[in-house]
Amino acid sequence: MKHSCPLLFALTGAIMLVSSLATAAQSTTPRAVVELYTSQGCNSCPPADRVLYELNQEDSDLLVLSYHVDYWNYLGWVDPFSDARYSDRQRDYASRMRERYVYTPQVIINGDAVVRATAKQNIESTSKSVTPLRNISEITITSGNATSPASGTVTLQDAGTSNTTAQVASRLWLIGFDREHQRDVLSGENAGKRLVHANVVREMTDLGTWDGKARDIPFAMNSACDGGIILMVQDGRGGPITAASVVRF
């Protein structure tokens, strides 16, 4: 479905998550971040939800993120996972890509490559051909875990060069996601269907811009996210994702 609307540089490091139970888990760097923009109120979305669910099960090198937009909530079913901020994020992409509208389902790989959301093989092949993501920084969790909101500190290492003169400032995003949700839709275009979603985004925090210098940033998630936490570096709003590190609970 379509909806009308107006319209790094090198990084190094590692990421580690330390839980409130004093256990530690080393992060992984996904081959690519596959963002799905979807809605339970859109009858075109269930096939894409299923494809991304399968990819998440089959390919651990990918990080799938499901962002539920809110602009279809007027069609008779309010998506319980929807958030206006996720719609705004998609619009930021549309603006940079000079698209006249946003739509669902839409898949964007590493914030740059748009692939048909039900084209499973194309998503896989594109994720292997894009520029590899880099690791960044370290995350220390001082409280919380998979069942309670996490808080801690993001420690950014000096990247070796300053980003203050870069044309587009690097922006940091901290995202928490749930591993899986299955929901029965009772009304609207998908009435009577049970929908399955993988890595549903529940919390998205803009940590601001980064100049490439060493820095500590405290954070506190508002929601318990049983799937994990990812830290991403992006070229401005709606720009390519250049680095990402994820810890899965």
TrEMBL record:
<feature type="signal peptide">
    <location>
        <begin position="1"/>
        <end position="24"/>
    </location>
</feature>
<protein>
    <recommendedName>
        <fullName>DUF1223 domain-containing protein</fullName>
    </recommendedName>
</protein>
<keyword id="KW-0732">Signal</keyword>
<dbReference type="Pfam" id="PF06764">
    <property type="entry name" value="DUF1223"/>
</dbReference>
<dbReference type="InterPro" id="IPR036249">
    <property type="entry name" value="Thioredoxin-like_sf"/>
</dbReference>
<dbReference type="InterPro" id="IPR010634">
    <property type="entry name" value="DUF1223"/>
</dbReference>
